[in-house]
Structure formats: C-alpha cells, structure tokens
UniProtKB/TrEMBL annotation:
It comes from the Eukaryota. Belongs to the cysteine synthase/cystathionine beta-synthase family. The chain holds residues 1 to 353 of 474 of the full protein. This is Tryptophan synthase beta chain-like PALP domain-containing protein. The lineage of its organism: Eukaryota, Metazoa, Ecdysozoa, Arthropoda, Hexapoda. One of its GO terms (biological process) is cysteine biosynthetic process from serine. It comes from Arctia plantaginis (Wood tiger moth). Residues 34-319 form the Tryptophan synthase beta chain-like PALP domain. Keywords: Pyridoxal phosphate.
C-alpha cells in the first residue's frame, strides 16, 4: 500500500537519479532583471511547416521571452550602457527617445534601475498596452502626431545639458548589439542556417543579425519581411498606412543596411495578424503582429525559393502578445477591421430549466 511518505520517497529518489537541468539559468540568482536580457530560446516549429506543405526546418527565435517582452530590451540595455561608458549620463540626465514602444520599454526599464528620468515620444498608432507599460516603469510618454524623431531632436537641441537622445535610428550600438548577441546566440544554437527572416523598423536587428550569420555562412539568405504599405525596401511601392506595429517605414534609417537583403516578401496586415494568431493556435507561441509578418514571409520565401528537406530557416519573433491584448488578439478587433468574418452562430445562452 502506498502512503504519502512512500510517494515522497520515490519522487525524491527519482529526482536524485535524474540529470541536473542543462540550463544553468535555473540554478542561478540574478542581481537585477537586466541580467536576463537576451539568451532567448530557439524553438522548432512543428505543425505550421507541415500545414503549409513545407519539409524544411523552421526555428523561431523567441524574443518575446525578454524581460520587457521584446527584442528591443537588448538595445535598451546596450545603448544605455554605452552612453554611461562614454560619460554623457549624470544625475540630471533625461533620456528622450522616439520609439514605437518596445525600445521605450527597454530604456525605461534601464532608467528605473538607475533612477534616470525618461521621456518617450511615440506615434498615435502604437498600442495603449505599450504606453501603459512605459508609464508603469515611470517614463513620461508623449503621443506625437507628426515626426517623433524630429520632435526628440528638437527637445535635445533646446536642452542639450540634460537631454540624452540615444537615437536607435542612427546609433550603431543598435546593430552591433544584435551582431554580438542575437546573431551569435543563433550561431551557438544551430550548426547551420540557410535562411534568416526578419522585419525592419530601425533595421538594427536585420543589419546586425544578418551580418553575423553571413560572416559564418556566406550563403545564408536574408529575407526582409516588409509590411504592405511600407516603402523601406522598394521606394516605388504603393505607400499607404498599415496597422502592424514596429516594422516598416517611409525612409531608410542609418542603421538599416539594405544591401545585405537578398529577398523581400511583402505581407498585408491581414496576413500578419492571422499568422500571429496561428502561431499561438498551432505552436503555442504568444507573439505580436510583426512576428506574424516575419513568419508569413518565411512561409512564402520557403515556397518561392524551393526550400526543401535539409534546409533550415530561422525567423525572428520580436515581441509578445501582451502588447496587443486589445488589438488583434481579440476576435472583435479582427472582425471590425474585416480581417476575419463575424461568427456564423450567435451567442449561445444557457437557460435554467
Ligand atoms: N517588431 C516590433 C514589434 C518592434 O517593436 C520592432 C522595433 N521597432 C521591430 C519589430 C523591428 O526591430 P528593428 O528596430 O531592430 O528593426
């Protein structure tokens, strides 16, 4: 007869016999949350490639696992550290940064730990979830109608003594941090990469990761995932507003190296959001809209470029679902934007007999 003590003893023996967890992080304590930026997992996709008739391997780099919820935690940390090293940060410093939100979260997280003030300038289209997160981290958030980069530069010109603009669009620490961390992590985890698929906002991820991968595997194909309406990669394309956040634009930032791109896939808002939802439904990956853009581009590129068995694709999933809880995550939002048909059945009610 088993009693509680027997069960406990057998679990204990089993646990002692098992190998220690291979991930060192499990047995570690950290001095601050910033030590957990980066080192994100690469997860193999199972159902999605099969569903699209693809025999190549697809791996997702899960950047939503960063502590602030996005890939931009990496540059928040690297740009703040670099600014401190160069001696431009003091007790009266205020960081001022134009951002679609995720870099703002990354910078604000650094600012909160060093008691530095922080003002974030963001466009009206960006989600209230990101704005609330930045405010919770103590940042002042200003919604800008026009050009938020120009607004930030003007603030700095008016107050050069106190305001430090890290300027992710021009700061080479942005692509360098992806070269050194994101790209290197992919190379450490996989013994070959045939294709890398990523979107571009500043272009820092694309430039840094692609350069690192091509350095080791010159034949690695770089696929840019471009939102329909953006003209980052084709200035002659039809420019129009689009809803996916964090990627695309109307001009090429200094940190974007377009010459490294081998292939471009243009993805509509509907494709982006449906694919992001599919990543949750089929693979359990709770990622944001631009992850859907990248994933959809990967599926299309794999087909166009005939990627078959033995080929390996890495897709960057830049942020997580929690930035978009009031947006594409809900059926109602998808239906209101005509990305999904309204439900065929009306609500079912249960009546007490
Ligand atoms: N996706 C999301 C959700 C983002 O916030 C960003 C950053 N703007 C990107 C993708 C693109 O990253 P990068 O700026 O490195 O091009």
């Amino acid at each position: 007869m088993y009693n509680l003590l027997n069960i406990r003893m057998s679990l204990l023996e089993e646990a002692q016999g098992r190998e220690r967890p291979s991930d060192n992080n499990i047995n570690k304590v950290y001095n601050s949350i910033l030590e957990l930026v980066g080192n994100t997992p690469l997860v193999r996709l199972n159902k999605i490639p099969q569903q699209y008739g693809l025999t190549c391997e697809i791996y997702a780099k899960c950047e939503f696992m960063n502590p602030g919820g996005s890939i931009k935690d990496r540059i928040g940390l690297a740009m703040v550290q670099n600014a401190k090293k160069s001696g431009i940060v003091n007790d009266s410093t205020r960081f001022v940064e134009p951002t679609s939100g995720n870099t703002g979260i990354g910078i604000a997280m650094n600012a909160v730990l060093t008691d530095t003030k922080c003002t974030i300038l963001t466009g009206e289209k960006n989600s209230s979830e990101k704005v609330s997160t930045m405010r919770l981290l103590g940042a002042e958030v200003i919604s800008v109608k026009g050009d938020e980069i120009e607004a930030a530069k003007q603030m700095q010109r008016e107050n050069p003594e106190t305001i430090v603009m890290l300027n992710q669009f021009e700061n080479m620490v942005n692509p360098m941090s992806h070269f050194e961390t994101t790209g290197t992590e992919i190379l450490c985890a996989l013994d070959k990469v045939d294709m890398i698929v990523l979107g571009a906002g500043t272009g820092g991820t694309l430039s840094g990761v692609s350069l690192r991968l091509k350095q080791k595997y010159p034949g690695c194909i770089v696929v840019a995932a471009e939102p329909d309406g953006s003209i980052l990669f084709d200035p002659c394309a039809d420019e129009h507003p689009f809803l996916v956040e964090g990627v695309g634009g109307t001009w090429a930032p200094e940190v974007l190296d377009r010459s490294i791109v081998d292939h471009v896939e243009v993805i509509t808002d509907q494709e982006s959001f449906l694919t992001a939802r599919e990543l949750a439904r089929k693979e359990g990956l709770l990622c944001g809209g631009s992850s859907g853009t990248a994933m959809c581009a990967a599926i299309k590129a794999a087909k166009t470029l005939n990627f078959g068995r033995g080929k390996r694709i890495v897709v960057i999933l830049p942020d997580g679902i929690r930035n978009y809880m009031t947006k594409f995550v809900t059926d109602q939002w998808m239906e209101a934007h005509l990305f999904m048909d309204p439900p065929k059945h009306t609500m079912k009610w249960w009546n007490k007999p």
